[in-house]
Amino acid sequence: MQSLRCSPASSVRACATRSRAGTVQVRALFGLFGKAKDAMGAAGSSSKGWTPGTGAEPKKVSPAGFDVTPMTKEAREAAARELPKMAQYVCMEHGTERAFTGATVNGYPHDNKQRGTYVCAVGDLPLFHSDTKFNSGTGWPSFFAPIDKNHIVEVTDMSIPYMPRVEVLCARSGAHLGHVFDDGPAPTGKRYCINAAALKFVPEGEPLTDETK
Questions:
Q1: At residue 100, what are phi and psi to the nearest 5 degrees?
Q2: Which residue among 91, 120, 170, 193 is the active-site one?
């Protein structure tokens, strides 16, 4: 995800490449308001920092008390098959929803203001609480901290040339969530810019699934 505030002027970058004949070709790289696969430049992200489990490893529990044992490849794929197409694209293909259009897999808008917990669309691991959600103006759900650092994996993402970013994955399922930037509010200074389609919202007072405990 681009470390930019949304504006039409900042969403397009021109990059020049010199051909073998010496001529200069200029290509427009569309960002925030381009095609979904190009938005935030996430189309080429890859979860090299996450490996599926074997099903034989000991159960790993986070300090928050949730199961963060990596899912097996088969379990991950089975869970993803139940998701809407956009969620499959985001979580499994490292795609990006268009700004200001996203919704969680259970229908809550990207700018949802209700209190509750955001869990991963693949495997239901709790990721963020509404208390850490803020309006970044980017059009994607933004949080300044995860529920537990052990619930996410941060991976260097070089999918945009000369623009290294940090990709955020679900520790349990390896699902692509979004990216994290160092331009967030206090107390962390972080902005976890997350695709709504990678999340499911559980309103406050409703139980979290037992699957992740």
A1: 70, 10
A2: 193
